[in-house]
Amino acid sequence: MNRRLLLVLSSFSFAVLFLFLVALFSGQGKIINDSFGLELLRVKINQRNNTAIFTPHRKLLPMEEPNRIWGEKCSKADIEINQGPSAPLPSGIPTYTVEILNICSTGCDISGIHLTCGWFSSAHLVNPKLFKRLMYDDCLVNEGKPLVNGGTVEFQYANTFPYPLAVSSVVCS
To answer: Which PANTHER family match (predicted)?
Structure first.
């Protein structure tokens, strides 16, 4: 009697496991999750020839194309601004490092780079050849000279808070 019960239970558990696996892999784009709810692997079944396509758990971010008018060589989107904290001054004033990059995909040099910068000021002198506030909310990068493709302008400033910097206009060279 015990052998028969053991045989029935093991057959039943095997059948349940088999049905679970069939149900799991029968749909398109099913996701296998681990115990923490993280997406581990995306399995897609090609129903024509019953082959599985395994894709990694990482998603590629969509590449945004700059908003260009037909025939335009460059746009504001070709300038990238990175800003982050750096070591404070001896007086304790926080400092920030700013990196302005030309990431033009068409190989263009960009000049006349103007940024919105509010009432930008610094307790630490910033080289005016690299970055200069002309008036409220208008700062000029690299004296308006071309920033070559792949080129970078980097400077540090010191203030109690970081200034939000954004590209307001550019000139395609």
So the answer is: PROTEIN TAPETUM DETERMINANT 1 (PTHR33184:SF67), PROTEIN TAPETUM DETERMINANT 1-LIKE-RELATED (PTHR33184)
